[in-house]
Each structure stands twice: as C-alpha cells, then as structure tokens.
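My current task is to audit a protein record that another person submitted. Thanks in advance; the entry in question is below:
***
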Amino acid sequence: MNIVSTTKSHPAKIALIAATILILELVFIRQLPAENHSLSYFTNLILMSSFFGLGIGCILEKKFNLERLLPIGLVAVFFFLIITRGMMVYQDTTLVHFWLQAVPGYESALKIPMFLCVVWAFISCLLPFIALGQYLIREMNQHSRLKAYSWDIIGSLIGTILFATASYFELPPWLLVTIVTLLASLLFIQQKWIQVTTSLAGLLFLYFFNTGLHAHWSPYYLVQHAQRTFGTSVWVNSSFHQYALDFVNPEPVSKKKTQYMLGKFSTPYNIYKEMHSGNTPETVLVLGAGTGNDLNIALLNEAKKITAVEIDPAIQRLGTKINTLKPYSDPKVTAIIDDARHFLRTSKEKFDLIVFGTLDSQTLLSGVANLRLENFVYTKESFEAAKSLLNDKGMVVVYYSALKPWLLSRIYTTMREVFGEQLRFLRMNDAFLFNSIIIAGNNLSELKDDPVNIKEFANNIPLSDNWPYLYLEKATIAPIYQSLFLVLLGLVIISFFV
C-alpha cells in the first residue's frame, strides 16, 4: 500500500530529509570502522550501501510503503556493531595486507571471515536508507523538478556544514545518530509508531558512550589509550596502533625494556655516527611523530633541531599529554600538523636525518577509495622528495613492521630505485613496534647492503604515484574484492527484477 500525504508540503522538508541522509551516511562511515576495525578498509562500501538503499527506496516509491525500514535498519546496524565487536575478523586472502592482528583475550572469540563481515555491514546499512530514499522521493514529487533538486542540494550542503562543524568540535558519531533520528522523528516522520520506534532506535546508540578505555574522536578515527607496563598503548578504530614508551619508569622490568628499545630505535643514529666521525645528526625530520617515541630517541641522541610532522591532531595532543619525557614541550622540537607527503613537497628546510615512523594508518585515504592514507608516502616520488631535503651525506631511515616478506620487499625495491646501492636493510630479532629498518644515504658511498638482502628483497614491483598499492602483493584484483563485486552485481540485478 502506498501512503502519500495529499497535502502539499513546503519544499524545505526536502532539505531536512537530504541533510538527514547526508549526516547519517557520514556518521556510519565514522562509527562502523571504529567498532569493527576490518571495515576501515571498506568505507567506500558503506557509502555505496547508502546510495544503493536510496535508489531502492526511490524505485519502490509507488509499490510498497517501506518507512518501517528506518527503525528496523537502525536496530540492524546497532546489533551488527554489538555482535561483531566481540568477534575476531580474519582476512580471506594473502594478496592484500590488512592490519588484523589478534587482540589479547580474544583467542576464544567467535571468528568470522572479512568477506561475510563486510557483506553483513553492507546489508545492515542498506535498510535505513531505503526508507529515507522513499521519504525523499515522495517529498520531491510534490514539486517541480528544478525546485525539488534545488532544495535537495541545499539540504546536502546544510548536512555537510553541520557534520563538518560536529567533527570540528570532535562530537562522537554515535551521538549524532541519536540527535539526527530524534530530529527526523519530530520534523518529517508522520506516522506515530514510526516516530517512536525511530527515536528509540536512535537512543540505542548512546550505548557506545562507554568504550571501556580513555577515548577521543580524531578527524580520522576513534583513538583510545590505556596505561600498560612499559608506557601507554594507543588503539585506533579498535586495533593496536602505537605504544608510547615510558623512559623514566625506574621499575627494573620497565627500565630493562625501555633501554632495549632505546638501543633498537638508536640503530640508525649509531650508523650515522660511524659514517660521520662520531658526530650525531643535528637536524632531524620525523614523519609520523605520533605520541613521540621517535622524538625521544632524537633528543636522547643529542639532535639540536627536530621537526615533528604528525597528521592526526588528536594523537599529537595525546603524545603531549601522556609521553613521560614530554618531547613536544622541548624547545628543540617543532610540531607540525600535516600530511607527510605534503610536507616533503612543500618544505624548504634541509635535514641530516629524515625518519619515516611506522606509518600504518589503518584507514583509507577517503570514503570512495581503497587507497590508505600512507600509500603515497612510500612511493618513489615520495622518497625522491625526501632525498631532495637531505643535507650532503644525510640519511633517510624507514622503520617498519610487517610479517609478509613481499611487503618489506616492496619498500626496499622502491628505495633502491631512488638511492641505488646506498642502502642497508636490517632485520630485528623481535617485532615489538617494528621488525625492520631500511637506511638510505645521500652521497654515502660507504653505505652498502648485504648481497643476501639484495637478492631476497630487491626484485619487487616499485611503488610510484601511478601505482601506489603498497598493500597489494601483485598487480591484480584480490579475490575478496571480486567476491564483493559479485554480491553488488547480484543486488543490482535483484533490484531490477523488483
């Protein structure tokens, strides 16, 4: 049965619905990966799900009344998050590297393949947008096309501004779900029982107020932290990201660990001293400064000027607060909130040592691409930009942690494209924070690598801005993406039959 109001409403109602749709799309793109880390690599599918749902709602406008799918869909999304946050998601293919390491205490948890998890999320997100699409098309059909689309665009712009404002003030997305659904119930939902059920469904999302850890929403993801034996653990989107080491803890076990890590981090500085008559690098650039471990190392190795580049302001502020050596407060350190690649392209300074921290962002460059934030940081053009900022006989060091040899080989091969034979690859005995160091030099002919490393790691596909796929083993479409394409194609075919 088709339920359409016979009274012509004001076109501003179109803008209200459009703003609701846009905010809810962006909120889901923020909220779902925060609770289920595997979705950090598929946020474009969440966007596609909302568009697909809107299309179905518009197509079925005159055939079915689907308004009830709004509260049902919100409940479906809520229970997807509640259920899967207690599951271990594992990857279906070895062709793509995902940061899906096991979380302590989850060994006995129910396991689900990434493909099923992503499809589940897609269908859950689809449902509320079917109803919203139907609300939108029914309002638009009451007005001329030009007027309807004009108000639709106005609503989208309003939604963009409101969401940007909420993000600027770092409001959590679960709160926006509650606010938006309550306003929708008041402003454009007419049936009483749908008003009530939609409001109650929105209120469910207040459950995510308690994350169990100290939490903060950055422009990129949910940042959480907790005190641990050797310092502070930091998680992003529910997955381990970095560890702020406590170098001043006098407790013997902690002191032993931090002293070991000091030696491990200082390896490039020791090599620098060997090749510069015992002198330490005076000017150091740290890309991916995070909570400040690399800054501590540079200060402890007597660097005189340190430029700390970090893309995430929330993580930088966290480092200012929790790092016990307070490196961001040291007058030798200049903190800059910027993308690493952008800084390399625009900086006019020269440095003795450039440090690429462990830049595993674990999130996408945008909601409409499967490129991750750091993909372009490890390309040939990026390393060329870094080389151009080196002083004569300066050095570049890349810390990295990956268990897949082909991933380390990808970075090594790319750096050899830029630095030639002036390269050295060091593998660590343990994987705490990083398991490899690659060092390259500018006019340092004495910096050579072991022929065994060259034979094993120097024959991969080099990364470039035209092919920046760091986490893809070879030039192909991985099976998990092929399977997802088939699912989407199947849903499109079904919608045509409907």
